[in-house]
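Structure ticket #2291
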Amino acid sequence: MRKTITKLAIVISIAINLTTQAQTTVSFDTFTLSPNSYYQDNAGTDFSSGVANFQYDWQGYWANGTAYTNLNDTVNGTYTNLYGAITGTSFSGTNYATAQSSAVVSFSNNTTAVHGFYLTNTTYAWKAIKSGNAFSRRFGDTSGTGSGTSIAQGTYPDWFKLSILGYRSGSQLTDTVHFYLADYRAAGTANDYVVKNWQYVNCISLGQVDSIKFEITSSDVGAFGINTPLFFSMDNFVTQSTVGVEELSNATNLSLFPNPANQFAILNYESNLVTELNVTISDITGKEIQNQSTQTSVGNNTLKLNIEALESGVYFVSISEGKNSKNIKLIKL
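Resolution: structure written out below.
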């Protein structure tokens, strides 16, 4: 027997059955900085706020990790301005943070969920993407490197992508969150974009983590690796305790197909007992769009999700049973 219930509600947790848990927002304003400056520690000391510890690596220069800053320089697009965001200001307050590719944020317990954070391009990366420099070419342009080229912006399908990887007990988790800081892959040039404001990235699909890692990739790759400056800026880093919430254990081998999808997505899973699961679809802000309850049978199970009425974009499918939950990212075409 299958029972389906559809309702509308607002969800601000990583799973529908999550009891009220404390959220902690790292705004980076808890750190003291002189105006128009940035964190620098010649001993390479990490810094912490709440449950979050931000890696900082110094090897005679800022070699890796994250640094908090309040630089407002949106003009200097060279390597002498590594820390400044293209917005010129933080998302809120005074300070924000700039991170390099491979930066790690660790947490003081393994019952932490990263709800999400705001991010944008640095001035250095934004200028390189828009205009090119001595090392990287202007996005969309295949004429070569350097900002002095006279050839108009082309239609080469360039991209600049941030990936957020979750880890627990030293092992990388299945889900990864991707965010395009620049995307020229669409046909023509009308939809080309390079992020220049603060945008929120939802990370609830990572689930419980004890650390996350940032990886940045680009379509502009040369003989010595990626040419685009591998930096981004972030603010209002929100974590949430998930004490009492367990990983979904009864429903295993979960998958969504097709994904991306247009009209329908099929949720496949295996169950070792008869039980009731709650399946919700939420948008990237956490607003719940659909909620279905389904009774499982022993063995293979499928559930058809009707997503035809949803607008194109990124959604999260949450499968929960009691205090156990699992989140899967769904892309609606």
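Closing remark: Confidence is low (pLDDT under 50) at residues 1-20, 144-152.
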